[in-house]
Amino acid sequence: MAFITANWNPLGEAFYRKIELYEMGWSLRDGLKECLVAAAPYGGPIENHLHNLKKLTLLQNIYNLQRWKSGPVRQLGWTVCDDLLCIQEDGTVLIYDLFGAFKRHFSMGNEVVQNQVLEAKVFHSPYGTGVAIVTGASRFTLATNIDDLKLRRLPEVPGLQGAPSCWAVLTQDRQTKVLLANRADLYILDNTSCTPVTPPGLSLQSCSIVNMAVSFSYKYLALFTDSGHLWMGSANLKDKLSEVDTKVRTPPKQMVWCRRPKSQQPSVVIMWDRLLLVAGECTDTIQYTLDEESVCVAELDGVRIVGGSRHELLQEVPSACQDIFKIASMAPGALLLEAHKEYEKSSQKADEYLREIKEQSVLGEAVRQCVEAAGYEHEPETQKTLLRAASFGKCFLSNYPPEPFVSMCRDLKVLNSVREYTVGIPLTHTQYKQMTVQVLIDRLVYRKLYPLAIEICRYLKTPEYQGVSRVLKHWACCKVQQKEEPDESIAHAVSVKLGEAAGISYSEIAARAYECGRTELAIKLLEFEPRSGEQVPLLLKMKRSQLALSKAIESGDTDLVYTVVTYLKNEMNRGDFFMTLRNQPVALSLYRQFCKHQEQDTLKDLFNQDDDHQELGNFYVKASYKEKKLEARLSLLQSAVDEYNKAKNEFAAKATEEEMKLLRFQRRLDEEMGEALLGLSLQETLHALLTSNFHKQAEQLYRDFRVPDKRYWWLKLTALAEKDDWEEMEKFAKSKKSPIGYLPFVEVCVKQHNKYEAKKYVSKVTPEQKVKAHLAIGDLEGAAEAAIERRSEGEISTVLSRCSPTTDRALLERLNRARSTAAKK
Amino acid sequence: MSAHLSYGRVNLNILREAARKELREFLDKCAGSKAIVWDEYLTGPFGLIAQYSLLKEHEVEKMFTLKGGRLPAADVKNIIFFVRPRLELMDIIAENVISEDKMHSPRDFHILFVPRRSMLCEQRLKEQGVLGSFINIDEYILDLIPYDGDLLSMESEGAFRECYLESDQTSLYHTAKGLMTLQALYGTIPQIFGKGECARHVANMMLRMKREFAGSQTQILPVFDSLLLLDRNIDLLTPLATQLTYEGLIDEVYGITNGYAKLPPEKFAAQKKQGEVGKDLPTEPKKMQLNSAEELYAEIRDKNFNAIGAALSKKAKIISAAFEERHNAKTVGEIKQFVSQLPHMQAARSSLANHTSIAELIKDITSEKNSLYSFSFHVQLTTLHSSFIYLFYLYLTRQVTSEAFFDNLTVEQEFMTGVDTDKVNTYIEDCIAQKDPLIKILRLVCMQSVCNNGLKQKILDYYKREILQTYGYEHMLTLNNLEKTGLLKPQTSTRNNYPTIRKTLKLWMEDANEQNPNDISYVYSGYAPLSIRLTQVLARPGWRSIEEVLKMLPGPHFEERQQLPAGLHKKRQQGENRTTLVFFLGGVTYAEVAALRFLSQMEDGGTEYIIATTKLINGTSWIKSLMDRPEAP
């Protein structure tokens, strides 16, 4: 195991190590000389490099063949979605995907076209990928998020001519700023102002700043002066961490921070043509010679160095690894590893080591260290050794939670598979945890490594709709772009592979197909979409409105149906529109509802088209009530009569005719007698006439409208009672035999509080109603008499219940006696 | 406030809490002080979810009712519109926004659509040029509202009219969505049964939505064993009949909206302080919340009204006895215990007083008045001492129902038993002649038509003509609506199948026991609601036994199974009851709810029911929703 520390270099308290990740497989004639290289952080990048290389060559090819129509490229950079940004001299930014296919472009402003871009930087922030440029006029322009492009031109920097000596983009307090150095002067440039600043503890009089670097987290800043001094401090320029004299006075080619979370010391990696230097808090430095042109890439937990033939990772050795592997370390982890080694050799020393750990009761800690250290190691063999030791240690522990061990094994399996040179994503465990599985899956998907992505999802048991389904969707989106394959076979392939996978959005795939101009394929794919609601907007976009309508109806979402209907209404001529609706009853009835509230006239047209005479009749009836003028009202009612006749609704036609007759009659009376009858119902009209003593007219209406006798008698009776016209009532009662009997006479009189009149009619009441009649006028004796006479138990009880036990004692007794005899029968 | 929701077989408070959480989240989205502009229709249903205090906690300072013109002044940062997605409301909102004073400190506008946002409405706002003025446009998915411990309602008044008259299935879509929400919280319901066109439509949508949500399935052990979807139009008869349970009668007489009944104040006057009787009689109607949170109400709500008197007096005795306990309390410990029970006893006493008043009010309407006893009854009420007088009063009045109420009931029962349903009914004729309320007439005529499977053309025309002549020609449209929904119809050549249905399903029970019921028919004193019989038969012995009758009722009947995720199959304990959710599409009456509760409590029933509906209805509110009145100029 000794060799593990072979590439360790001490710097102050900490060690640094440089691990070779890959041998580069690209064949560049001149190495990286004269090349613009861009690499993105989170390991993804290096692999990027491989492709990147392809792309670079691709770009070079384009460049060489002079098919490169626009100006020269100033800067390359990667977006968070693994797209390549090419910033050209004229401020145009071109976006390519991982495979070199052009996606889109945007411009950094008109001003740039004249002044040219001098320098540009691509940066990442919580808002996404941003681009910053400085123009020939020494002005800075920023775009914080290229997906939501908002250009911000920063204020002028006093005294700046041409490009600044060096500059960097900072994100602080949710604001993106530019930090720049113009020889000895340092400025912070934000949206509104340009503020001169001085880093604490750096004497600037004597020297100018030639390079600067901002840490991955935007928390730290490093400045390099032409006197060879390196100043390190916080990015807010409040604290100084250290200052180191590198004794090299040439301006470095590149300078990047090399930190890791929970780092023991901050350090910066500085690169010259042939020299790589690591400087930290102490005065010592580590120096590496470089034998080829290289590029440094800052990472969350180290620096990657990409050269023409090699790709390496430089990082501070994590403390867990230090504890275990440092020579002569007595840390619990180191002892456990040793114990396991002896155990494998079947040596009793294993027990001695174990005993030692257990005596200090640090076995748990030892296991934890081994597991953690395994995560930091790149060599699968070393990982295995550490994990085996951990698992060995676990055997002697009870209640040690298994999760950390298990999840580390899983993570490592995933990491090793993506580190594989064919995939080429040299992620560290720290980076992996920071960027999450989701993002890793995305990255694999961008690289079209679908099978691996699916394997990982399955292995990690990611919920289907977040994992496998998502990958499959991307695969399908890619598949539909294969121009050479026919629609049929693509649709088939997609449906076979995606099958019933949960949560697949076929509409998204279809939308992609449509974007590529494959409408037919899109329609075929939409057929697989289980959510009808999702199908509708795309179908409308593709002008398949009929299909959209039936899908909307299928979904049951009436709002969606309305949306399509409104769309159709604007798209089609009226005739076609109505015909379409006619074939879709659900849509038609919804549209009718809409018209009922919003467009009355259209409603009529709809009924007309359908020959729905009944509804047309109703429509006219409703309309008639809106008319103030009687003539207009009558003519609408006449239309209603016609429609009802067409609908063979005799009753409605006749009733409407009668209403017209009534209206005319009411108008005549209103004119002649000054009554206000118009609009009253027949019953109300009669009542009004009777109470106003227009008996003749009432009589006429009664005959004309064939009012049933019963109702007319009731009507007249109540009208007379209300007027207290008792004389007329008596006459009326005697005019002929009452069709409603005489109980109503009694009741109506009682209602008008005229018991005297009521009594007159009690005798005329039929025997069945006698009891009721007597009770109505409060004649208990009479009621009792009648009830007993009829020997009806029920009636006797009714009377009984009305008797008060105190006042009607005699009656009570009599009734009770009668009831018992009635009951006997 | 909501504890009563969690006592039932299924804890419906989970649903309420989910709804409250969502509301809070939305309110917090609009940072700063706020004013809510209410679509008036929504305030009732919202009251069942959250009180003003919740809104206040989230900086709601003012509330307005949505109306045209300019918004009232309010010094708040946010104006939030709580609205249903209706075009006419969008126009009002647009008017509000446009007339907002631009010079004044700007206020942020938000819209919360209930229950669902609508593209159509947003389009309208866009046309009006105000869509851009809204910071947040959101939806508040409020489909099923917990109404009581075993009752969910969508509080959607127009559902029946929309579905059966206007073929607008929007409310069915909301129903399906609501059931999906329910399943997300209470697990997938493994079995779905249904009867009727709308039921079929809802089930189809549910199955489709389940496919759509595939993959995001919740791993919850199913709480419900089955779902029964019932169309209202398979049982048009039940809501037409007068409900005879206590709660049903309160609804018939005073109406219960969103769980509240407004009662005439007179009877409640004496309660507050005994000394001040008659001093200041309240004139505002008394608003009472009626739900199972009130112990006494939960006990008596579902009893037949004729059993209420006994129940109340029994309760009165118990309470009196409890108060008498104080004389027996000798030791400090006993006194302490007595005092600790006082609040509960006092609550019980005031609850008893309230319900005695309500019972008396209803009796005034259903029975003949007798001022003497009413008086002595009142004395009893205030002092709660001599409850036997009250008993006496009830004994007397029990038999003597008021004539009008009694006659009406007699005719209803004649129709339900199939007596003379093919002739013009003299009682209806007389009622028309005396111009009784139109809705009463319509209820009776419709009932006759339903019980006769349609009326002879001549009879139908006669009734219609009588109605038009008496109440006015404008009711032509209403009559047309009733015919369209099948409530009124001319008899076609097919024979009247109502008697067959009645006999097979035992819809009429001669010997209904109102005091100690042994069958659901007690809720209508003899008539067993068809809808509930179907539910009962489904549980045992199953619908296969009544295929013939099912065919006579409109719409298909069906059974669907929903696949459960592995491991979620419920293992039923021996003797454990099944839980069935019965969903009434188009409304349910309180009497039907009572009948289902009765079935749940049956010892050998084997099934417990949770009830859901689009709206709680009664014959009057139902017919009213179907009426069309042309607007006068």
UniProtKB/TrEMBL annotation, chain A:
Q: Superkingdom, according to UniProt?
A: Eukaryota
Q: Name one GO molecular function term.
A: actin binding
Give the subcellular location. Late endosome membrane; Lysosome membrane
Spell out the InterPro entries in the cross-references: VPS16, Vps16_C, Vps16_C_sf, Vps16_N
Q: What keywords are assigned to this protein?
A: Endosome, Lysosome, Membrane, Protein transport, Transport
A single Gene Ontology CC annotation of this entry is: late endosome membrane
Principal location listed in the UniProt entry: membrane
The protein's topology relative to the membrane is: Peripheral membrane protein
In this protein, which residues make up the domain named Vps16 C-terminal? 504-819
Q: Which residues form the Vps16 N-terminal domain?
A: 5-406
GO BP terms: namely: endosomal transport; intracellular protein transport; vacuole fusion, non-autophagic
Physiological role: Plays a role in vesicle-mediated protein trafficking to lysosomal compartments including the endocytic membrane transport and autophagic pathways. Believed to act as a core component of the putative HOPS and CORVET endosomal tethering complexes.
The entry assigns this protein to a family as follows:
Belongs to the VPS16 family.
Assembly and oligomerization:
Core component of at least two putative endosomal tethering complexes, the homotypic fusion and vacuole protein sorting (HOPS) complex and the class C core vacuole/endosome tethering (CORVET) complex. Their common core is composed of the class C Vps proteins VPS11, VPS16, VPS18 and VPS33A, which in HOPS further associates with VPS39 and VPS41 and in CORVET with VPS8 and TGFBRAP1. Interacts with RAB5C. Interacts with STX17, MON1B. Associates with adapter protein complex 3 (AP-3) and clathrin:AP-3 complexes.
Q: What is this protein called?
A: Vacuolar protein sorting-associated protein 16 homolog
The source organism is: Oncorhynchus kisutch
UniProtKB/TrEMBL annotation, chain B:
Taking the first listed entry, what is the main subcellular location of this protein, grouped into a coarse class? cytoplasm
Q: Which InterPro entries match?
A: Sec-1-like_dom1, Sec-1-like_dom3a, Sec1-like, Sec1-like_dom2, Sec1-like_sf, VPS33_dom3b
Keywords assigned by UniProt, alphabetized: Cytoplasmic vesicle, Endosome, Lysosome, Membrane, Protein transport, Transport
Q: Name one GO biological process term.
A: vesicle-mediated transport
Q: Name one GO cellular component term.
A: early endosome
The record describes its membrane topology as: Peripheral membrane protein
Where does it reside?
Cytoplasmic vesicle, Autophagosome; Cytoplasmic vesicle, Clathrin-coated vesicle; Early endosome; Late endosome membrane
Q: Which family does it belong to?
A: Belongs to the STXBP/unc-18/SEC1 family.
Function field: Plays a role in vesicle-mediated protein trafficking to lysosomal compartments including the endocytic membrane transport and autophagic pathways. Believed to act as a core component of the putative HOPS and CORVET endosomal tethering complexes which are proposed to be involved in the Rab5-to-Rab7 endosome conversion probably implicating MON1A/B, and via binding SNAREs and SNARE complexes to mediate tethering and docking events during SNARE-mediated membrane fusion.
Q: PANTHER family, per this entry?
A: VESICLE PROTEIN SORTING-ASSOCIATED (PTHR11679)
Protein name, UniProt field:
Vacuolar protein sorting-associated protein 33A
